[in-house]
Hints:
MetI-like fold
Amino acid sequence: xxxxxxxxxxxxxxxxxxxxxxxxxxxxxxxxxxxxxxxxxxxxxxxxxxxxxxxxxxxxxxxxxxxxxxxxxxxxxxxxxxxxxxxxxxxxxxxxxxxxxxxxxxxxxxxxxxxxxxxxxxxxxxxxxxxxxxxxxxxxxxxxxxxxxxxxxxxxxxxxxxxxxxxxxxxxxxxxxxxxxxxxxxxxxxxxxxxxxxxxxxxxxxxxxxxxxxxxxxxxxxxxxxxxxxxxxxxxxxxxxxxxxxxxxxxxxxxxxxxxxxxxxxxxxxxxxxxxxxxxxxxxxxxxxxxxxxxxxxxxxxxxxxxxxxxxxxxxxxxxxxxxxxxxxxxxxxxxxxxxx
Length: 341
């Protein structure tokens, strides 16, 4: 078993190399590079019409200026050479500087890291805390009125777009036309630093409620039905029929014999457990004024900020690959009969 996990860890290196190489090529070949955007700014700032006079490039600036800009952005070298330089810098945890803000990329990610981490951890905790018991209860009560009504509610929740839900929550509960129960956005109040410790906790929770509902609503339905259907499939197996034939109590059959095997598919979802460190939602963060990873990646994509995009892809890929290994380890914990050797 340990040999298998050692091989999986070694496989992270070539897999990560392939992901970053492909991402680097696609990002750099996409139209609208930082160099082109900078040239467009210079063009509009100087009132150029884009003509090509003597000694001017097709961008309306002199060849000397164009070459200087290429060198500034590192575009004076071939694509694969630039990837090699990026890879060398990554080995020393140098993610470069942002093309738009000129701040170190690593500092920008670390600055927004706590926002996404908080929402990721809290949403993961509540989803598994609520969805697993609810899915088990729905499986036990399969076909009853409770199952039908709860399924209808869950499908309605799943069908609501996060954008629309966020707007409705703000309008109804955040000082819109109805109630002023929650703040419009942000992580805490302006006087947060002057609060007592228990007031800070309450203030955080107060700001968390509305965006957390938007974060969880879609995954909540999926996880609940995954738990229900998984348990229903296990209950139909022969060994469960044998346990019932022996006269075991129904609760013991379900919660002791069936539930453990039914949790195996949910372990697959836990492969993304490390992804919560960079969890983010562009729409939710935009609506509730949260400076998280989702909004950072969105702005980086709009600005063609290659260094920020590659930094996010690199970190997210490592977390994803390590999460896969954790998922395999969870399989063994849930069902010791699983052998990867």
